[in-house]
Every structure is written in C-alpha cells, then in structure tokens.
Design goal:
The chain is an alpha/beta fold. It has helices at residues 9-59, 74-77, 80-84, and strands at 103-104, 117-120, 130-131, 133-136, 154-158, 163-164, 199-204, 209-213. Helix content is 24%, strand content 12%.
C-alpha cells in the first residue's frame, strides 16, 4: 500500500494566504454592513421617539416638552425631556442609546470622538438620566414651544449633549469629536457629529426621520429667527477652505 501523505508546507502557506486574503476582503465589507445596520436601528429608535412625542403633544395642547421646575437646577432641566417622554415610550431605556454610541465618558477630546459617546447626568434624583440623542432646546423655550407647528423643525437627533440651542453663527467643530463647553458659540458642535458616515440621524416635527449631512445643520430651521443663509452656508458666502480641515470633504449646503 502507498503511504498516505499530508499537506506540504507550501500547500499550507497557500491555504493560509488565501484565508488571509479573503478575510482582508470581507472585514471591510462586514464593517460597512454593521455600520449600516446600526444606522437603520438608530432611525427606527427615532421613529419610536416620534410616536412618543406625537402622543405627548396631543396630551399637552400642542406644546412640546419644556424645561421643568422639578429638576434640581436649571442645568439639570436640560435633561427633563427624557423624563417627560418616559410615560410615552415603550422599552424606554433601550430607546435612549444609538447603537453606534457605545462608550460613556466625560473626556470629550480628540482621543474620544463625541460620535461614539453617550452622555449621562448624576444630579440627585436624575441619576438614571442618560442617552445619546439630543433635544432641540428651542422647542423647550416658552416663546417657541408652539414652533412645533413647523414641520421642518428638528426635534431629536444624534447628539453628544441632552439638549442644544444651535444658532446660525455658531462655529463648526475645530476637529472631529470637538466638544465646545462654552454656551455662547458651542451648541452646534454637539450635534455636528459624524456618527453615521458623513452625518447623523434626525427626527423632525412632521415625525419623519432622515439622515442629515454634517454641514446641513446650518440650514435647518432650529427656531423661528434662525437664518438658513448664515455665514456657514453657500448662500452666506462660505468657501471650502473656511471649514475645518476634517469637514472639507463633506457635502456643502
């Protein structure tokens, strides 16, 4: 009988090379599929939030959730929309986080980009308040709560803060993941995040959900007097080189 032979070293190296090549091809594809699945799941959550907001508005004479005096401080009241919607949202805690925002940190630096971070609050009775979606704080202000009638108004969106008050002259983030702590010109940096391949997901007042481009934040009707032709828009004269380097490749508006 002939002696049975195993694989030679050359044959094993060929097989290993083929497996490595296939893995090199498949891993980027699997990564893109995973990110797409996370974006779809994020939009599904925002649609569920839309159902909760619609029910809330119906029970409160057409008004959006506002700041509450029950919060320990004004700062904490920025989180009050989360508590207001608790009774109107099923699977409440599962709805608070975008699948892409998997890390919680207080270090909003270049080393920890804000698109991957979820915020939290630890003040007294609000210790359980956390999430990765932000609320259009203009809708919580008394003069604007009936702005809810404007179908193009942003309501809830991917954000590195619980609530924001964007203005048309707010400067863009200096670098990807930049988190401006100052209140004067920093709010738009908290929603201007690259969480879903060049943009983030947003719920609007007509309860529709779509992905918006990073630079598109400057043309949205955040509040009644917001100028969609401000200095950071094509209509306002912004030039490609005016944007921070990390943003120059994104679509202009």
């Amino acid at each position: 009988m002939r002696k049975r032979q195993g694989f030679t070293l050359i044959e094993l190296l060929v097989v290993i090379s083929i497996i490595a090549l296939l893995m090199g091809i498949m891993l980027p594809i699997l990564g893109r599929v995973r990110k797409q699945a996370q974006a779809v799941a994020c939009q599904a959550k925002l649609r569920q939030w839309g159902i909760g907001f619609e029910a809330y508005v119906g029970d409160h004479d057409g008004r959006m959730p506002g700041y509450t005096l029950e919060a320990p401080t004004w700062f904490a009241s920025r989180y009050s929309w989360v508590l207001s919607l608790e009774a109107y949202t099923t699977h409440y805690e599962d709805m608070l986080l975008c699948p892409t925002a998997s890390r919680r940190t207080t270090d909003k630096s270049a080393a920890t980009p804000s698109q991957f971070v979820w915020w939290g609050h630890h003040e007294l009775s609000m210790s359980h308040v956390f999430g990765s979606y932000g609320y259009n704080g203009w809708l919580a202000e008394r003069p604007y709560r009936r702005l809810a009638g404007r179908t193009g108004s942003p309501v809830l969106f991917d954000c590195s803060s619980a609530s924001v008050l964007p203005m048309h002259d707010h400067d863009p983030p200096e670098y990807e993941g930049h988190f401006e702590r100052g209140l004067a010109r920093g709010f738009i940096t908290r929603v201007c995040i690259n969480r879903h391949n060049g943009g983030n997901n947003m719920l609007f007042r007509d309860w529709s959900v779509r992905k918006i481009g990073i630079k598109e934040n400057w043309i949205l009707r955040w509040y009644r007097e917001f100028n969609p032709a401000g200095p950071w828009t094509r209509a306002g004269g912004v030039q490609p080189e005016d944007w921070p380097e990390w943003m120059r490749g994104f679509k202009d508006y």
